[in-house]
Design goal:
about 200 residues, alpha+beta, 2 domains, 5-stranded mixed β-sheet, 4 helices, about 20% helix, about 40% strand, elongated
Length: about 200
């Protein structure tokens, strides 16, 4: 069976940040072009780098448009046309590797209003774990978005209580309290779209 090129349309998927699993892993989608990504051993070194969103998005839109206009399913395209599509994607990722040796293991796609740092080590660790030689990311601003966040609020004051003393008699007491509670607050923050491609280069 012929293996088709790996094409992504930048559909933005919501993801929850935080927890033990990184955002990169949580939003990872394996590529059908990589028939069995698990066969690749973890890599020692991963190249982490970014490409312009306009460049990548433009190429993906062109690939998607060509597929939509074709009367023949991409699975049935001649090898030369499939190869040409693959070359276009590899060039969009600014890879100098031979397209015939490039295997795209998958992608991570998400949108967030939180700060994301692709070089904080989490992306490298995940890319290395799936056997990627490259993790190529791109991001763009989507404008302002409203989000609900938990904000700390401190309350202080006096309170009274009734208690039973050692003799069994009821008594009243007043005390000073200081407590912090978290309340939901709607805030406006800049929202960003992210996409990452994980690539293995065959020898």
């Amino acid at each position: 069976m012929r293996r088709t090129g790996f094409v992504f349309v930048l559909t933005l998927l919501a993801a929850t940040l935080g927890g033990c699993v990184s955002t990169w892993q949580r939003t990872f989608e394996a590529s059908s072009a990589a028939s069995s990504p698990a066969r690749f051993e973890p890599t020692e070194d991963v190249v982490i780098r970014g490409v312009p969103w306009s460049r990548l998005n433009s190429a993906l839109r062109a690939i998607d448009r060509e597929r939509a206009e074709s009367d023949i399913h991409p699975d049935e395209w001649p090898p030369s046309k499939q190869a040409a599509e693959r070359v276009r994607l590899v060039k969009a990722l600014q890879l100098s590797e031979d397209p015939a040796k490039v295997v795209i293991l998958g992608r991570s796609v998400f949108r967030t209003t939180r700060d994301v740092d692709p070089i904080d080590g989490s992306l490298e660790r995940f890319a290395r774990s799936i056997g990627a030689d490259y993790a190529i990311w791109s991001t763009t601003s989507l404008g302002k978005a409203q989000t609900v966040e938990q904000e700390p609020v401190t309350r202080t004051g006096y309170a009274s209580r009734r208690f039973r003393d050692r003799d069994g008699r009821h008594d009243d007491d007043s005390f000073w309290y200081n407590e912090t509670i978290f309340v939901p607050v709607v805030v406006e923050r800049e929202e960003y779209a992210w996409v990452v491609y994980y690539i293995r280069v065959l020898p």
